[in-house]
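Worked Example 4.2. Consider the chain below.
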Amino acid sequence: MHLMVPIRFVVPKDDELWPRATWGYQLGKQAAWLRKQRRGGGVIPSFALADLEDMDFAWGNNQYRWDHFIFPALRRFFELHGHTNVPAIFHVPKGDVDWPERLWGRRLGGTVSNMRKRHDYEKQVRANSEELAVMGFCYDSTFYDRNWREKVLPALKAYHEAYRHCRVWSSFVVPGEPQWSVTARGLKLGVVVSDMRSKGIYADQATRDKLELQELGFIWDRSDWEWKERILPSMETFSDAFGHCRVPINFAVPSDASWSKQAHGLKLGRVMADIRSKKTYFDQIVRSTDHLASLGFEWKIPPSKWEQIVEPLLVRYEHL
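Applying the procedure from the previous section yields the following structure tokens:
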């Protein structure tokens, strides 16, 4: 129920829901005239003005939508979820008793997205800026920008400060300790980092802050880093020490100066077993084939990998 009468609306004829005397009346144009009079300071009879106010007439569609639908929906979303990071696809579920009936079906996500992208309802946002700030509503930048600025990047910096590296393990969640940003506490940083690598989330923000990430030692390809910094140096040291690369399955890199410090404790025997049985680090091994052969490492390309990757690449190369 609302009084946002479209300018083209004409009272339907032969519709008993409407008084017979109004059939065919151009109500939309009359409503537009009333709004124009109000904006321009024109005269509207006092009795009519009182009736219109009682009916909650929509003097301005944007303001009316904001007051009756958008702002109430944002408030309710905040009450239910504790934040206003409304997904772009979110619409108020119909029939959900947690929401006022007049909001059912409202495409709140699309509205909020347009508020950020196109600055829709800019006047209303400014007028209600204090309450929106309390709700943590992000208007002047995207949700990803705000999260990156207030949560992800501060958490990565704190992680580096705490652990002296930025190799965030997948299950890591930002703890509620003083050295961690209050806004980032509870953030599943391991999942975020994994999604940055595999799904490309925060790609724009990471590109913009590329130098900061480099200073933190952020790793985009963990497998590559593990291979270059831990596994391959350990294989080289093992070969130097024992004259071969047949690593016993229970062998772990000892914590002494002859071994790479970053590899101390690495279960090299298990890694080598997985390389042979599960074909892990396939790409890295292919790139290092000659060097590995010089270390005495014996490994066969699995038929499935040959058929799926190597052979097609060789065929393609042949036709270049």
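The mean pLDDT is 83. The longest helix spans residues 61-81. Compare this with Example 4.1 before moving on.
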